[in-house]
Amino acid sequence: MTKVYINGKLLDKEQATISVYDHGLLYGDGVFEGIRVYDGKVFRLKEHIDRLYESGRAIRLELPMTRADLTAAVKATVAANNLGDGYVRLVVTRGSGYLGLDPRKTSDPQVIIIADTITLYPREMYEQGLKLITASTIRNHPQALSARIKSLNYLNNILAKIEGTDAGCVEALMLNHKGEVAECTGDNIFIVQKGVLKTPSVDAGILEGITRNAVIGLAREAGVMVLETTLIRHDLYIADECFLTGTAAEVIPVVSLDGRPIGEGKPGPITRDLLARFQKLTRGETA
Ligand code: PMP
Hints:
Blueprint: E1 3-6, E2 9-12, H1 23-27, E3 30-38, E4 41-42, H2 45-58, H3 67-80, E5 86-93, E6 111-116, H4 123-128, E7 130-134, H5 155-166, E8 171-175, E9 181-184, E10 188-193, E11 196-199, H6 210-221, E12 226-228, H7 233-237, E13 241-246, E14 250-257, E15 260-261, H8 269-284
Parallel strand pairs: 7-8, 7-14, 11-12
Antiparallel strand pairs: 1-2, 1-6, 3-4, 3-5, 5-6, 8-9, 10-11, 10-13, 13-14, 14-15
The structure holds 4'-deoxy-4'-aminopyridoxal-5'-phosphate.
4'-deoxy-4'-aminopyridoxal-5'-phosphate is lined by residues 34, 157, 183, 186-188, 207, 209-212, 245-248.
């Protein structure tokens, strides 16, 4: 039976419930992290814990636990579920209040940790690559809500995701308010142009992905030049290679955008090399 952590207790999945007055449910008021477990070890846990606290700070939600206690709770939940390879969802809600927005009238932020498995995309897509379309829904304007906050409100991305699935694509490209390439609905995006790896900078209004940062490190180690720079769709149309990164997605090749093949229309050599290096890193770093 899957055990779910809520506020210090490990409960059976069916017993793991929170109030319907929780502002996490009523308003999407809360923050979260998605984290991978490889061979029973949690990948880049410190980075995820740091980002969760930053998200909390940004929405003025004080997390009710120390980083050390939260880190220990994640590890304990993984152990309680005998998870070898899996996925952890760490959620902190604003807590229950009344039917009004004011977070000062809430109490008891809920700390929830689910340790389970995840398969985001079919296996064969990692070999063959996936197709993207550009969504007409743009990424949230950074002055409305910073994309750097991993909040419980994903409607912006969900609307873009629906556009993707309507078009038969498992992911969709999102532009920012300036019309530049930002990211996909749940993944960061990279291209290779003449041997140089390029990805939008954090200023483009994106989530600063932990997988993104790991892949930038791997590329530099491999001697590939990496540029965090402004990209427009033209850059993607003329790119030699393209791929996405994310905790759940890991590294996945992209072979077309808006019906136009990228490069040769199949996963390129730098993409395949980085995918292999990433797989090695997730095994090596956690072994
Ligand atoms: N962008 C968005 C919008 C995301 O939700 C995610 C996480 N699913 C990412 C990028 C990738 O971030 P990470 O590598 O930290 O999972």
